[in-house]
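Two records follow; treat each independently.
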Amino acid sequence: MAGLNKIFIIGNVGTDPEMRYTGTGNAMTTFRVAATHTYTTPEGERRDETEWFSVITWGRQAEQCNLYLQKGRRVFVEGRLRTRTWDGADGQRRFRLEILADRVVFLDRPQAASLEPQEEPPLEPDLPFEEE
């Protein structure tokens, strides 16, 4: 029987992306995403719980994430979970849960983008088609 390893998150980018190239020339970009769950306690107090995710993208998607994502941007990430383990310098076993992204969707505009409508250029009259 086949298994399923799929995760979907929507959150805010917590670190500017870092892009590297592997020895074979493949682009890899990593960044962190914070996803916050807001709830109300039985006493009526609103609370936030934030989970942080490490995201890894590859290839063309890695290049796009490096170009267009920045800290604070809102993203949708779809991928699979992977646990990476290693021994720390102190001899302790360490682990990190990572999302290997299949798809990253940018959900908002860059901070520098103007929200005011742009003036459209005036329409040019139709000119006759000239063959060369």
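The next record belongs to a different protein.
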Amino acid sequence: MKTLKSLLFLVILFSNLICSGQASIFGTAYAQIVPLIGVAQIQQLSFGQFTPLAGGGSVTVTPQGTRTTDGSIIVTENPVHQGIFTVSGTQDNKLNVLLPNTPVYIYHQNGVNSMYLDTWTVDMPNGGNSEAGKDFVVNIGSTIHVAPIESNPIGLYQGTYPVVFFYN
């Protein structure tokens, strides 16, 4: 009986200690809604006209619209263009661009032959920091790899490439 009383005393003692050691507080939560990013392609990425010779090669267009070649490629004076996008809804945010990290294929009008693009580059004005009331203009460049004329016959090649714009 003495053991039962001692046990009951300890249970009551510990339950009072546990209950009296509590504290409550209200935390603060917040959220901020930012404008939706709007993107429009203003100018298509164009490598212009060229002819691959026996060795093939590559053609690069920089984000500033400058074209260079490597390998056995003959280019015409046909205009080339960097890809240009406008991005809206970025006031007071830092904008980032995610470009392809694997080759992107464009296909001949016959649907069989292809060339691939890689080595993507971007020109982000103002380091990606937005200015209130102004849309961003983002320029994109890439390199296209061209096989010899036997594998890349004469004709138009085209395709699409993914670009993801996001706030940081």
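Discussion point: The mean pLDDT is 86. How would you locate this feature using only the token line?
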